[in-house]
Amino acid sequence: MKLPSAFVAGLIFGLGLILSGMTDPSKVIAFLDLAGVWDPSLAFVMGGAITVASIGFYFASKRSRAVLGDPMRLPTATRIDRRLVLGSLAFGVGWGLAGYCPGPVVASLLSGRSEPLIFFVAMLAGMALYEFQTRLSEKPQ
């Protein structure tokens, strides 16, 4: 039941990204271009997503188990630290330069264009580099 549920959730998420224009890098860059010809339409997409997620998190916080039976694992971090700020900056710069972020780039892989593939490979390389660096710093001396 978990795999079909994950597939359906991913399919709905991907279709939502495509329909909202989040997979179009030029639309995303126009949204981020506050000094140029700003396109505010993605603010409505984000507002809707934040609203739906907030409702979901509210109900999830009241439960000890997920609908499919797994234990709930909600975020517990509340501190703004160096890693959060640097990660946010890296994410924002990548999003601003390329017009992609992780969800939309996965949905864009089937478009056949090379740009999403290049971004996706670079994203995986960055994730692997982070894991490698984290494991090195956690090794006992």
TrEMBL record:
Keywords: Membrane, Transmembrane, Transmembrane helix. This is Membrane protein. Pfam families: DUF6691. It comes from Halomonas huangheensis. The keyword Membrane applies. The chain crosses the membrane at residues 41-60, 80-97, 117-133.
